[in-house]
Amino acid sequence: MNLTKKSLSLLGLGLALTVAISAGLVWAGDQDFVLINKTGYDIDEVYVAPAHQKTWGDDVMDQDTLDNGQNVTIEFAHKEKDCVWDMRIVFSDGEEAIWEGFDLCTIHQITLRYAGKRPTAEVK
């Protein structure tokens, strides 16, 4: 009898863990990515928008400034279906840079750098 209660308890615990893990996956979007700032400059604002959209919307960063050498995770709602996104960065000095056509359904990390005076992005 004790073995049955113990087995049922373990089964219940396993089911609870499965539900908890699945719930986390439901809320995470396929487009989530880590943005790494290696530009040599601090970033004040980050905007992402589907490539076909004409407006940027709100700053998506969860912090005031992304210092050089720091990173931030940009998260999307699970219901989001668009894969190809553009990104606009506003640096602390007011300068801006725009990248177009990131396939965020296949990218999980974007590292921003400067090559000379031109901003570049390395994706993984």
Describe the protein in words.
The chain is of the alpha+beta class and 124 residues long. It folds into two domains: 1-28; 31-123, Domain of unknown function DUF5300 (Immunoglobulin-like), CATH 2.60.40. Helix content is 21%, strand content 38%. It has one helix and seven strands, in the order H-E-E-E-E-E-E-E. It has one helix at 2-27, and strands at 33-38, 43-50, 71-74, 84-91, 96-103, 109-115, 118-123. The strands form two sheets. A four-stranded mixed beta sheet has the order 3-1-6-7, with no helix packed on it. Strand 6 (109-115) and strand 7 (118-123) form a beta hairpin. It is globular.
In short:
With 124 residues, this protein is an alpha+beta fold. 21% of the residues lie in helices and 38% in strands. Strands 3-1-6-7 form a four-stranded mixed beta sheet, with no helix packed on it.
Note the main attributes of this structure.
124 residues, globular, three-stranded antiparallel β-sheet, alpha+beta, 21% helix, Immunoglobulin-like
The CATH homologous superfamily name of the largest domain equals Domain of unknown function DUF5300
The rounded Rg comes to: 20 Å
Portion of residues within helices: 10-25%
Major β-sheet strand ordering: 3-1-6-7
Tell me the distance between the termini: 53 Å
**Whole-number mean pLDDT:** 83
Backbone shape: globular
User: How is the biggest beta sheet arranged?
Assistant: 4 strands, mixed
Q: How many domains, as an integer?
A: 2
Structural class: alpha+beta
**How many strand elements?**
7
